[in-house]
TrEMBL record:
This is Bifunctional glyoxylate/hydroxypyruvate reductase A. Keywords: Cytoplasm, NAD, NADP, Oxidoreductase, Pyruvate. The gene is ghrA. Residues 107-278 form the D-isomer specific 2-hydroxyacid dehydrogenase NAD-binding domain. It comes from Izhakiella australiensis. InterPro entries: D-isomer_DH_CS (IPR029753), D-isomer_DH_NAD-bd (IPR006140), NAD(P)-bd_dom_sf (IPR036291). PANTHER family: 2-HACID_DH_C DOMAIN-CONTAINING PROTEIN, D-ISOMER SPECIFIC 2-HYDROXYACID DEHYDROGENASE NAD-BINDING DOMAIN-CONTAINING PROTEIN. GO terms for molecular function: NAD binding; oxidoreductase activity, acting on the CH-OH group of donors, NAD or NADP as acceptor.
Amino acid sequence: MDIIYYHPSFNPETWLNGMKRRLPMANVRLWQPGDDAPADYALARQPPVEMLQGRTDLKALFALGAGVDDILEQLKQHPSMLTPQIPLFRLEDTGMAVQMQEYALYHVLSWFRRFPEYQQQKQQHYWHHLKNRRRSEFAIGIMGAGVLGKSVAACLRPFGFPLRCWSRSAKQIDGVTSYHGGEQLAEFLSASQVLINLLPNTPQTAGIINRTLMRQLPRGAFILNLARGAHLVETDLLAALDDGEIAGAALDVFASEPLSSDHPFWAHPAVAITPHNAAVTLPDEAMDYIAAAILKLEAGEAPAGKVDRNLGY
């Protein structure tokens, strides 16, 4: 069994040695330009076109991330890079779910307890008790009901917030009121005091968090974007913040990364920023999944995480 690996920033030795330990029967190598030797499986993030071009015998490509939008975008420009019969897999969890839980829980509880407002008071040397929010009126709306969306809902459930989710198709999640499709989006938004975005990045979801959507949220709602920068119209968010329609936002992803030094988000007091690290790929967990998935494929079984290229996830 031959496996090729490519990532623009990860330490290759960690992955080469780790995969060899998990699959001792495999020949695992770092792909380099000019390497057109046979390969059964490919592990890659932002792979060069020539890495995959012409590999019709490839059994599967594993994308080294939760999203596959980078590979799908490449396929638009180079459709022959990965023939349709070669399955594409993404990392559904592999340690990312817990990280997303931590990130979401931190911001939801911070907004609920009004800690950002107290921090502003501290800077002004101002001692003043703010009115406590009512838990029953602080509904959390999660856009995206996949593995990560379900995980975030599960971590918030013990705190007693009303939980709502919205997705393309109908989903059932314990303790969560579910909405789906365009016809139910407005109802979902109408009571979501916090909007958490965990949607996949597809042509249909690009720019979905715009001024029209924000105006359907309760006035003074909060926005937490953990998915992709392409989902959010940044100028619309700034306008909604300045008009008081949105009370605050926490953003881990942006339309252009790294965020330019003159971007208005840096100076805005109601915007929290992190450098696209809400959930990073954990090598050990990711390699455990990939090795198990390869063994299933070799046994003629179907592992989790296969991407529907038409849907984009």
